[in-house]
Design goal:
Blueprint (H helix, E strand, L loop, with lengths): L3 E10 L2 E11 L4 E5 L6 H9 L6 E6 L2 E2 L10 E4 L11 H10 L6 H14 L15 H14 L4 E5 L7 H18 L2 E6 L2 H7 L2 E6 L2 E6 L1 H6 L4 H6 L6 E8 L2 E3 L7 E2 L10 E5 L5 E3 L7 E5 L4 E3 L2 E8 L2 E8 L9 E5 L6 E4 L2 E3 L2
Parallel strand pairs: 3-8, 3-9, 6-7, 7-8
Antiparallel strand pairs: 1-2, 1-4, 4-5, 9-10, 11-12, 11-14, 12-13, 14-21, 15-20, 16-18, 16-20, 17-18, 18-19, 21-22
Helix pairs in contact: 2-3, 2-4, 3-4, 4-5
Length: about 350
């Protein structure tokens, strides 16, 4: 197992900075997801780790060893791409075994053992004798995963491997990835724009935007305690509500608040303030209460697994609400909203304050 150290990596393409001075560590044996929207730099960073791109500046270290100038073949890294390269004239088992045939340190007995292991972990033993053209996209990716992990590389990199897989097969593929990562414990970096994949697979998630790491933390911490408005918006379906607020004489007021809040220490003067709250934490009732504010239901509720997503308007502000059970009113009718103060977050110019 090998710790990966990203030591102030910068990557520029002409005037465009794709990776902007990233410094972080991926721990031994953990699954780290690089998560973010298209164009945020996550694939470029992964390619630099693999040796497929040279950084403009900075270093990459594997287990304390500087590999910045080493070619991919000398980095002992396995890779799984969006479009796996397979050999159609070979069976599934032969495709998995192929890289091991050229490794003199691996005996035929050990090669067969490794192939058997990944066939079992990925639940494709029944396909061992099948040819690649007989497989659907999901099972082809399982073979690509098996080939990468069978080498027992110190590090395995995944570049959005489920992008071209249909939904049902995608779920099976994610379950297979989870089984592989739990059993083999190689250091894995997984690139995705899909928050569900990241939350399911990752020990830690590096949330990226515009070439920078916005936050690197465990999935639940990233969801429950975002340090930026971007993190609160990107994670969640839907993302967090951000309601304009203002501060005066140590008190914060907003249309979402029945009473002012005490301003957190160190609040920047003149900053643009918002209050963040997850839609599932907003409470909606049909009758007024001591801590409620009046709103107008303006969107038809969408029900999923007993929860209903809708929107309410307070003045000019729309608030997303995810209720447990059918909303207490219909579109165009008045409702009353309240927010638990312990769940509110204050953001100044996009960054959380009073953490």
């Amino acid at each position: 197992m090998t710790e990966i150290v990203i030591d102030h990596i910068v990557k520029r393409f002409g005037a465009f900075t794709a990776v902007d001075d990233i410094a972080m560590r991926f721990a031994d044996g953990e699954v780290a997801c690089l998560l973010g929207p298209s164009g945020c730099g996550k694939t470029t960073l992964m390619r630099i780790i693999a040796g497929l791109e040279a950084p403009t500046s900075g270093r990459i270290l594997f287990g304390g060893r500087d590999v910045t100038d080493l070619p991919p073949r000398k980095r002992n890294v396995g890779m799984v791409f969006q479009y796996p390269v397979m050999y159609p004239t070979l069976s599934v088992a032969e495709n998995i075994a192929l890289p091991l045939r050229y490794d003199r340190a691996v005996s035929s007995v050990e090669r067969d053992r490794r192939v058997d292991e990944v066939l079992d972990v990925l639940d494709i033993r029944g396909l061992a004798g099948a040819f690649i053209e007989e497989l659907d996209a999901g099972n082809r990716q399982k073979v690509a995963v098996g080939r990468a992990v069978a080498r027992q590389s110190e590090i395995v990199l995944f570049d959005e491997p489920t992008t071209n897989v249909e939904v049902k097969a995608k779920l099976a593929l994610i379950r297979a990835f989870k089984a592989v990562t739990q059993r083999l414990r190689q250091t894995i970096v997984y690139v995705t724009h899909d928050q569900t994949e990241a939350m399911t697979l990752a020990d830690r998630i590096a949330l990226m935007k515009s070439g920078k790491i916005m936050q690197y933390d465990r999935p639940q911490q990233l969801y429950n305690q975002p340090t930026t408005e971007f993190g609160g918006w990107f994670l969640g379906n839907p993302g967090m509500n951000f309601v304009p607020a203002s501060a005066e004489q140590g008190r914060i007021t907003s249309v979402i608040l029945a009473e002012p809040l005490a301003a957190p220490a160190g609040l920047p003067q003149g900053a643009g303030l918002t209050i963040g709250i997850r839609p599932e934490l907003v409470r909606m009732t049909g009758a007024a209460g001591p801590q409620t504010v009046e709103a107008l239901l303006v969107d038809q509720a969408i029900g999923i697994a007993g929860r209903y997503l809708t929107k309410a308007r307070i003045g000019d502000v729309l608030v997303k609400v995810n209720t447990e059970g059918i909303p207490p009113a219909g579109v165009g009718q008045k409702v009353h909203l309240s927010v638990p103060r312990e769940d509110l977050m204050i953001f100044a110019d996009g960054s959380r304050v009073g953490i």
